[in-house]
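Subject: sequence -> structure tokens, single chain

Hey, anyone have a minute? Need the predicted structure for the following. Not urgent.
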Amino acid sequence: MTQPSDSLDPWTDRLRTLSPDISREDADRFVHDLYQRAQTDRDRERSDAEYEREE
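Reply:
Had a minute. Here:
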């Protein structure tokens, strides 16, 4: 699983706009964790769909 850090920067900036008190590091970490979780969920859905096709 790769992280397109450049494409996450706008999300980090947007989070900081919505919550100016959050540090850049905390915003980066939150966006990264959210991205990883979404990728994991997406991979699981694909795996489940592939399993269903094979059945």
